[in-house]
Amino acid sequence: xxxxxxxxSILFPVFAxxxxxxxxxxxMSNLKQIGLALAMYAQDHDGELPYHLLTLDATPTxxxxxxxxxxxxxxxxxxxxxxxxxxxxxxxADTTVAYAYNRDLNGMPRDQVEDASSVLAxxxxxxxxxxxxxxxxxRDTDGTGYTEDPNNGTSPNRVIFSRHNGGGDGVFLxxxxxxxxxxxxxxxxxxx
Length: 192
Description:
two-stranded antiparallel sheet, 29% helix, DUF1559, DUF1559 domain-containing protein
């Protein structure tokens, strides 16, 4: 029995680490698919990226990047990071949202972005207190920028999650995915 206990104490952390790596790989796959959906959307809409905003007219309407991308994805679970621990909120058709869209890209013509490989399009993140449906956004240099949540979602503020080994996954406008530390995300969103 002692030998089994020793083996279990050695192997359980290894198995837990392997499961976490598998969930991170699934998250990267989700983001890659979202990046492809963004490219297809832009191709079908004269090069413009989707909007994600609240209109300010007489009858306000919430325009969601999730709603715009749904025709290009087959599974709503694509918008849910497998590492997410009950943080997020319901989007269109009861889709749980775990990724934030760069709202600086709202309706922007894709070809106007000079260096698409350095522009973060969608990232692990959410505004925990958000009351809108349809996903969340992040934004650079607006004074309230999204920050890392060291408690992985228990902060009442807008957050970029460190869900995966102290960092988060993101897809860039050119379609490549990358794991980033929170400090790298801050540097990307708020260049000096």
